[in-house]
Amino acid sequence: MKYNIENVNENEVMLHVDFSDEGVELQGETRIKGNQEDALKYLPVFEKDLRINFADKFPVNIQLPEGGELI
């Protein structure tokens, strides 16, 4: 995931995220009251929400134990 934080005014920033580096066609943005530090604190929450809300866009990695198989 790539992100960018853009100053809107002295009290707000815009947080942009892009998952294309993971092969997922999904971008999101949200406006945050505060500064860039506040946006960085919110970034993991926003990322998790997007991954949950758009789970169908993300590939599922199933890791089997060595020698294991799907039943």
Residues in helices, as a percent range: 25-40%
Mean pLDDT, all residues: 91
Globally, the shape reads elongated
Radius of gyration from CA coordinates: 16 Å
How would you write the strand order of the largest sheet? 1-2-3
The chain-level structural class is alpha+beta
Total DSSP helices: 1
> Poorly predicted ranges (pLDDT <50, ≥5 residues)?
none
| SSE order, one letter for each helix or strand | EEEH
Element layout with pairings:
Layout: E1 2-9, E2 12-18, E3 27-33, H1 36-53
Antiparallel strand pairs: 1-2, 2-3
Structure overview:
By secondary structure, the protein is an alpha+beta fold. The protein has one helix at residues 36-53; strands at 2-9, 12-18, 27-33. It has one domain. Helix content is 25%, strand content 31%. The longest helix has 18 residues, at 36-53.
Care to give the gist of this entry?
The chain is an alpha+beta fold and 71 residues long.
Main traits of this protein?
alpha+beta; three-stranded antiparallel β-sheet; 3 strands; 31% strand; elongated
